[in-house]
Design a protein that fits this description.
The protein has ten helices and 13 strands. With 322 residues, it is an alpha/beta fold.
C-alpha cells in the first residue's frame, strides 16, 4: 500500500499587515464590531508586486526546504486558488517555472475555500497510483483583488496569503502508519447565490466582486463541516476521541467554536489563526497547519483533521497521521 505522507509545510504572507483599526479609517466599521462577529484582528493585503503566484512560490519554497528536498524532486504540483494570476495558463505552471522545475505535472484546482482539501485528495489519489512520487500541494489567494471595499460585511473578512505542503508517496504495510488516512469531499451547486463572485470571462467579461449572504453561509457551514469531519473519521476507522488536532478553514471564530461543539471537541484542540490572517480562502488550512507545525503544537504521530467549506457550496475533510 502506498500512502501520501506529509514531509514538509510552508507559508507566505504579504508584507502589509492591516489591523481592524487601520481598516476602520477607510471602511465604516470598528475593531469591536469585527472582533465580536468574526474574531478577526488582522489581515495581510498583497502589494502591487505580490500576486497569487509569488505568494505560492514562497510558501512552496519553504515547504520544500522543510521536507529536506530540492525543487527538482517535485514531480506534481496541484495549486488551489480562486484568484489566479491569469485566466490561463494555470498559476501552478507559473509557480513551476519560478521554482526552476524543468518538467512536472502542474495544474490548478478551483473549489474556493475548500480548494486545498480538493487538491489534497487529487494529489493523494495520484500518489497512490505510484506514477508520481512527490507532490507539492498549495493553497494561495489574493482575495483583496476581488473584494468590494464599500461592503463592510464582506471586505473585513478576507486577507491574502499562501500555504503549501509536500506529500510523498511511501510504501507502508502498517495500518497505523503515517500519511493521509481518509478524505471526503462534497458539493451542492444549488447554493450558488449565497456565496459567489458576480463576474467571469464567459458572463460579464470582468473579474467581478465577492458577494455573500453571511447568515445563510454560517448555518450551512456549521452543519456541513461537523458532518464531513465525522464522515472522514468513520472512513479512517477513528473517533473524535482519537483526534489530536483539528485544523479548520479559518473563516470565522464563531464557526470554529460551533463546529467543535457539534463534534464534542475541546477548543484547545482547534488550531486558530483567523485572528491574525482573516479568511484566506484556499490558503487558510495550509497556513494554519504550517503555523501549528512550526510552533511545535502538531508533532510526529498526531492525528490531524483538516476541514473547509466554501462557495459552490463545496466542503470536505481529510484525516492524516503526521
Amino acid at each position: 500500500m502506498i500512502r501520501a505522507v506529509l514531509t514538509g509545510t510552508g507559508s507566505a504572507l504579504p508584507v502589509r499587515r492591516v489591523s481592524n483599526a487601520e481598516l476602520a479609517q477607510e471602511v465604516d466599521t470598528s475593531d469591536e464590531w469585527i472582533v465580536e462577529r468574526t474574531g478577526i484582528r488582522f489581515r495581510h493585503i498583497a502589494g502591487p508586486d505580490e500576486t497569487t503566484a509569488t505568494l505560492a512560490r514562497d510558501a512552496a519554497s519553504a515547504a520544500i526546504a522543510a521536507a529536506g528536498l530540492s525543487a527538482q524532486d517535485i514531480d506534481l504540483i496541484v495549486l488551489a486558488t480562486a484568484t489566479p494570476d491569469q485566466t490561463f495558463p494555470a498559476t501552478a505552471t507559473k509557480v513551476q517555472a519560478m521554482l526552476g522545475i524543468d518538467d512536472c505535472v502542474a495544474f490548478d484546482v478551483a473549489a474556493v475555500c475548500s480548494g486545498f482539501l480538493y487538491a489534497v485528495q487529487v494529489a493523494d489519489s495520484m500518489l497512490r497510483t505510484g506514477v508520481h512520487r512527490r507532490a507539492l500541494v498549495i493553497g494561495a489567494e489574493t482575495f483583496s483583488r476581488i473584494l468590494d471595499w464599500q461592503d463592510r460585511t464582506t471586505c473585513v473578512l478576507f486577507g491574502d496569503g499562501a500555504g503549501a505542503i509536500v506529500l510523498e508517496g511511501q510504501e507502508s504495510e502498517e495500518a497505523d502508519g503515517r500519511g493521509i488516512l481518509a478524505t471526503r469531499l462534497h458539493a451542492d451547486g444549488r447554493h450558488n447565490d449565497l456565496l459567489y463572485v458576480d463576474g467571469g470571462p464567459s458572463t460579464t467579461g470582468t473579474v467581478g466582486k465577492l458577494r455573500m449572504k453571511g447568515r445563510e453561509v454560517f448555518r450551512h457551514a456549521v452543519v456541513n463541516l461537523a458532518a464531513v469531519m465525522a464522515e472522514s473519521l468513520v472512513i479512517a476507522g477513528l473517533s473524535s476521541e482519537d483526534v489530536d488536532w483539528v485544523v479548520p478553514h479559518q473563516a470565522n471564530a464563531r464557526i470554529l467554536d460551533a463546529t467543535a461543539r457539534k463534534l464534542g471537541l475541546p477548543p484547545e484542540k482547534v488550531v486558530v489563526t483567523v485572528d491574525q490572517h482573516a479568511n484566506t480562502s484556499a490558503a487558510s488550512v495550509p497556513l494554519a497547519l504550517d503555523t501549528a507545525m512550526r510552533d511545535g503544537r502538531v508533532r510526529a504521530g498526531d492525528i490531524v483533521v483538516l476541514e473547509a467549506m466554501g462557495g459552490g457550496f463545496t466542503w470536505g475533510a481529510a484525516v492524516l497521521r503526521v
